[in-house]
Known about the structure:
Layout: H1 2-13, H2 16-42, E1 44-49, E2 52-60, E3 66-70, E4 74-78, E5 85-90, H3 96-104, H4 107-114, H5 116-147, H6 150-173, E6 184-187, H7 192-196, H8 199-219, H9 222-228, E7 240-245, H10 253-264, E8 269-272, H11 285-288, E9 298-300, H12 308-315, E10 320-322, E11 326-330, E12 333-337, H13 365-378, E13 386-388, E14 404-407, E15 414-417, E16 422-423, E17 444-447, E18 467-474, E19 480-488, E20 496-502, E21 521-522
Parallel strand pairs: 3-5, 7-8, 8-9, 9-10, 12-13, 13-14, 14-17, 16-21
Antiparallel strand pairs: 1-2, 2-5, 3-4, 4-6, 7-18, 11-12, 15-17, 18-19, 19-20
Helix pairs in contact: 2-5, 2-6, 5-6
Amino acid sequence: MRSLLNRYVRPALRSRWAHRIRLGATITLVSVVGTVVGTLLLAHSEVGVGPFRAEMSVSPSFSGGTEVDIPPLGSLHLDSHKGPIHLKVNLGSLDQGRTEALIDDPTAISAAGQSAVDDVTQGVIKLVLRALGASVLTSMLLAALVFRSTRRMAWSGGLALAVTAGSMGLAAGTLRPDSISEPRYEGLLVNAPAVVGDARRIADNYGRYADQLAQIVSNVSRIYATVSSLPVYEPDANSTRILHVSDLHLNPASWDIIRTVVKQFDIDAVVDTGDIVDWGSTTEDTYVSEIASIGAPYIYVRGNHDSIATEAAVRRQSNVRVLDDTVTSVGGLTIAGIADPEFTPDKSNDPAPVVGNADGPSSSPLVRAGEQLAATIESQPGGVDVALVHDPAMAPPLSGTVPLVLAGHLHRRQVSILPRPVVLPPGSAAPSAPATPSEIQETRLMVEGSTGGAGLRGLEAEEPTPIQMSVLYFDELHELKAYDDIQLGGTGKSQVTLERKVIGQEPEPTTNPSVHSGVTPITPSRSGP
């Protein structure tokens, strides 16, 4: 055996052809490694698509295809071509310059949609050229380190160019343009049909809504001029100003509006009565991270679309105070709140609240949560100025325990005075007449509209749900003296409206029958401070 090795194998290994094969294999390996490394590190490009700054990249792949990331909603995957190249597109950032250009020129929105295909094509061409250059350059640099030979560097660069160009050619040759109609969804986009309903109708409505968006944004500034001419009530330096928001439902446009109002109205704190997201998934956590940029304390109670994980993500923000049968203080105001006890993110349309059933009010988890918060408020030394709940159905047990209850959930603004509780005389199980004003304080219920325009579902109607929020003014005695109702447009209504209400100047609103279907018996010990 040894003689055979000495006589045939070793001479063959030392031959010129064996040396050339080893050299060729080494150059090929260096070229392939350089191509992969160069593509991963340098094959990136950016392209403007409408107001977006799309980030494109390619990577080696056996299956090919295209992935489009749309934070925080998830991603969609297209079987657009075969390997060995995978295309990734990230639509996660807005370009400030392009966005401002769209705002300054509303007609540019339509033009941006028409030019989107050309923009993407130019981005792909730019990406291909960068991938070719990156693979050649990296392969030549790696060959220089391995061989220290200009000739072999040239061979490595040429081979890398051939490999990359061949891969791009294979991808182009197997291109399937109709794959856009057969996407595979991941993340929140898996639930897209349940969230947005009829996609064609929403696409049509969103087109009309987008045409008004630039005008709505520019008209936010009109709020400030309006405020200066509002009559009767002039907040003084001792006033505490609270911004009430609710039901943002994952609308990213809400944050810019909230930040603007906080700054211009000199807001002391923002209170959020829940449904900040749609599905309560961890994918939505990036949305709530915007809270940290608000510039004011942010007080939050969980809604029925918010999960425990959502609450935890909100709690991680540095300026947040999460209330769940707890009490906090801001600007001299004492605020109590409790989370919605029901987690029902799959509801396509939230129904009007219902209090109780045939078995009595105590069978409703919403009413029980309200009773739990009422007990917490009554045990609070000095009383509570404001109570926060998500669903107005949680409010009736709070009547008489707190002067003001803030809620959301209905996606429409309502103000009412809760019925005064019925007093149970000591030692008696039979209710007497409703308590008189001297026996128990009056409780005002203020239900906020959707500060997120109800999210994507707000586009299902003929006109999008308006964006609503309210600024509440409290005096040095912690009494609500006035409030500004702010509403931002909708399709065909590209204006900002602001209506100031001064407490005591107009007849108090009547009780809202959809919130309360009866009276709450209490004993005299339930009387407020």
